Amino acid sequence: MTEPVRVLRPAWPVPARIQAASTTRVGGTSRGDFAGLNLAVHVGDDPAAVGHNRALLREALGLPAEPLWLSQVHGRNLVDAARAGEGTEADASFTTTPGVVCAVMTADCLPVLFADLDGRQVAAAHAGWRGLAGGVLETTLARFEDPSRVIAWLGPAIGPRAFEVGDEVRAAFCEGQAEAVHCFRPARPGHWLADIYALARLRLFAAGIGEVYGGGRCTYSEPEMFYSYRRSRRTGRMASLIWIEEAI
């Protein structure tokens, strides 16, 4: 018997009409390397299982529409979710339209959800280290009228005890923002343990965002709960989603 779909709900002070969630791998019908609620069609899973998992997700969350599933490329391109089609090449989407669902898929990379405090606009961004260093969060935040009236939630990503990177990754962050040096700890010669949550907070606050919530989970070290690309290259993907409810 399939377990019920299990999701994480952000604990953040947004208007009631804004709904958001981040999935785990728990639930779903995928098997083998993808066991659980895999939501990605591009990883080699049975397309029928992925379709069933997406249907289970829609039912579990009461989604008003099919999410906009992007073709993510570790860049900083941002699209209007109400106008883009499935498979659009981008790493972030936004909407001001009620009933439109923004979504990003991850399996170690950092999902970031954005909402303005007036409940009029939301966004979702996929931030691996390349996208994060390249400005995907700043690009997304810039789409909001007043960044100081925007808050963000950091979904599950690889934790600071597991995210080992090379000198080039540290340099990509520290050359543009000296404070980023505090987000890295030595691991071995030429390698560092990076805190992707701290790096994201640093960049968001520098861009003028008001408050940042979430963080603290580790996709790599919680195999029963999350998929992790670093733990297993052949694996599924979770989704982080946000939308504005239509007025009743």
Written account of the structure:
The mean pLDDT is 97. The protein is of the alpha+beta class and 248 residues long. The strands form three sheets. It has a six-stranded mixed beta sheet. A four-stranded antiparallel beta sheet has the order 1-2-13-5, with no helix packed on it. It has a three-stranded antiparallel beta sheet with strand order 9-11-10. The protein has a single domain, classed as 4-Layer Sandwich (CNF1/YfiH-like putative cysteine hydrolases), CATH 3.60.140.10. The chain is built from five helices and 13 strands. It is globular and about 45 Å long.
Identify the notable features of this structure and list them briefly.
about 250 residues; alpha+beta; CNF1/YfiH-like putative cysteine hydrolases; 6-stranded mixed sheet; 4-stranded antiparallel sheet; globular
Strand content: 25-35%
CATH architecture: 4-Layer Sandwich
Q: Give me the CATH fold name.
A: CNF1/YfiH-like putative cysteine hydrolases
| Helix content bin | 10-25%
What best-fitting shape do the alpha-carbon axes yield?
globular
Low-pLDDT stretches are none
Count of distinct structural domains: 1
Rg from alpha-carbon coordinates: 17 Å
CATH superfamily: CNF1/YfiH-like putative cysteine hydrolases
**How many beta-strand segments?**
13
Structural category is alpha+beta
Q: Average pLDDT value?
A: 97
Physical arrangement of strands within the biggest beta sheet: 3-4-7-6-8-12
- Give the CATH level 1 class: Alpha Beta
Main sheet overview: 6 strands, mixed
